[in-house]
Amino acid sequence: MSKVAILMSTYNGERYLAEQLDSIVNQTYRDWALYIRDDGSKDATREILRAYAKRDPRINYLEAASQQNLGVKKSFFSLLATAEADYYMFSDQDDVWHQDKVEVTLHAMQEKEQAVGKRVPINVFTNLELVDATLAPMQLMNGATVKDDFFHLLYRNVVTGCTMMVNEALKQKLKLDQIDVTKLAMHDWWIGLVAALFGENVYVAQPTIKYRQHGDNVAGGIERVNTLTTVLHRIANLTDEKVLVLIVEKFSYELKRLYAEELRGKEKQYVYAYAKVATSSNFTLNFQTAVTCQPYSTHPWFFNLIMLMFARSLKVGNRAKK
Predict the structure, then answer these.
(1) Average of per-residue pLDDT across 106-125
(2) DSSP state string for 219-237
(3) Alpha carbons 136 and 29: distance in angstroms, whole number
(4) 165 pLDDT more than 50
(5) 199 with 125: CB under 8 angstroms?
(6) I need a labelling partner for 279 at 20 to 30 A (CA). Which of 8, 110, 113, 153 fits?
């Protein structure tokens, strides 16, 4: 059987952690190992982790690696670099996995590998069921299809980390020892982009997880509805739109830094253009970029408008932070 490593980063998760751990323990696919790194919890999270690690030998609480607060991105990348398996999944601390989550995701992964080969970087991700704090159903995150090609994914993330499985080829392609996490909005978005550039993203429309919504987290990735109310809200909050432009710039800057020799075609054109904006933003350059690299997003004129309105403050370069 293929070995699956499940990676969990915890932080003050005592309220829901046991329920999530139970849902992993009860998976129909049994050949998994759970690696958990705590990121500096002040509640009873660590005691819960010790208890579960004693109870199930597949659960590995990496207590020695849990002495420093790294932040969620660096914590997950640290886990991914440490674990050794055939495939890797990511787990939040407060959700509940459907009992067949690993089995369904692994089946989709192996089907794709049979079609394209194991040397191709592959990221499989699934739909998810939004639920409230008591697990009462709210809605599905996505529909039957999502836009997970590079050009759409650059502007909007549809890859939710807690639904992902990556193969070894993709793990190696990530260059984990070289990533500058200050350039990344989130680890899942970055992994999806790298998969889209050099391999494939595979979407499974079947939900495999109850994605809990509560006071400490909110769902990302839900499609913006193209209504007059949405447009007016975005017009009234243009400074909020600036965040997306900065995300695209930082992603592009890091993609160029790590993969300059491997980029080709239109993907290279977009990455190089926004990477240049990141280091040399000005009205003329940004106008040229807006003309030659039209955003693949809802209301793309918002994006271009922000590049022009805030041209003086969009330069990030080596000083980029979260």
Answers:
(1) 98
(2) ---PPPP-SHHHHHHHHHT
(3) 26
(4) yes
(5) no
(6) 153
244, HSE (Cβ side, Cα atoms, 13 Å): 26
Q: Which tokens go with 50? A: 């010790």
> 157 and 224 in contact (C-beta within 8 Å)?
no
Q: Are 159 and 188 in contact (CB under 8 A)?
A: yes
Strand ranges (E), 116-199: 122-131, 137-140, 165-167
Residues in the chain: 322
Read off the DSSP letter of residue 214. Answer: B
As given in the structure block, the two tokens for residue 153 are 């994914």
Whether 182 and 320 have beta carbons less than 8 Å apart is answered as yes
85 neighbors 187 (Cβ within 8 angstroms): no
Average pLDDT, the chain: 93
Tell me, what amino acid is at 8?
A: M
**Which DSSP symbol is given to 133?**
T
- What's residue 229's pLDDT? 75
313 DSSP assignment:
G
Sequence-distant (≥ 6) Cβ neighbours of residue 246 within 8 angstroms: 314, 316, 320
Q: What does the DSSP 8-state code read for residue 321? A: -
Greatest pairwise CA separation for the chain in angstroms: 62
Q: What is the per-residue pLDDT for 226? A: 60
- Sequence-distant (6+) residues with CB within 8 A of 112 are 122, 124, 200, 202
207/21 Cα distance (integer angstroms): 19
- Report the alpha-carbon distance of residue 126 to residue 148 in Å, rounded: 12
- How do strand 32-38 and strand 59-61 relate by DSSP bridges? parallel
Reduced to 3 states (helix: H, G, I; strand: E, B; else coil), residue 83 is coil
Per the CB < 8 A criterion, the answer to whether 46 and 13 are in contact is: no
What burial letters (b/e) apply to 267-299, b meaning 16+ CB within 10 Å?
A: bbebbbbbbbbbeebeeebbeebbeebebbbbb
pLDDT of residue 320: 44
